[in-house]
Design brief:
This protein is α+β, with helices and mostly antiparallel strands. The protein has two domains: 9-49, no CATH class; 69-117, no CATH class. It is built from three helices and six strands; from the N terminus they run H-E-E-H-E-E-E-E-H. It has helices at 9-13, 40-49, 98-117, and strands at residues 18-21, 24-27, 69-72, 77-80, 88-91, 94-96. The strands form two sheets. It has a four-stranded antiparallel beta sheet. The protein has a two-stranded antiparallel ribbon with strand order 1-2. Strand 3 (69-72) and strand 4 form a beta hairpin. The radius of gyration is 20 Å and the shape is elongated. Zinc ion binds next to loops.
């Protein structure tokens, strides 16, 4: 993704509200119209995605096992809930920080978007 202005998802949709314009529905923040193919919800999601954010559904986990571990990614990612100083995350047994996980996940999503944008 090319550099985009750093704005939050909230800023992206601020001012975009559904309003009645005559007999039709429109957007207070732009020229979106209910007469088009895009739903208002899809309009808001598009505005957020255009700022470089992604909306994803997080995978569900199975909850803590008997040993206080939560397993994700078919066992490659583990969250240890038994630590005296809080939970810790591990990838293939190596402890990693939440910031690393978040940054890596964002890089995966960016790669997925680049590939999909290049699809015919
Ligand atoms: Zn709008």
């Amino acid at each position: 993704m090319s550099a985009t202005k750093q704005i939050t998802p909230e800023q992206a949709i601020d001012g975009h509200e559904l309003e009645r314009i005559g007999h039709d529905l429109g957007c207070t923040g732009c020229n979106w119209s209910a007469l088009g193919d895009e739903s208002f919800a899809a309009h808001l999601v598009r505005l957020i995605r255009e700022t470089g954010h992604e909306i994803v559904r997080l995978p569900e986990d199975e909850g803590e096992d008997y040993y206080g571990q939560v397993w994700l990614d078919e066992g490659d990612i583990r969250v240890d809930c038994t630590g005296t100083h809080g939970r810790t995350a591990h990838i293939n047994g190596v402890e990693v920080r939440p910031n690393y996980l978040r940054r890596t996940a964002a890089e995966f999503l960016a790669a997925a978007r680049l590939v999909e944008e290049g699809l015919p």
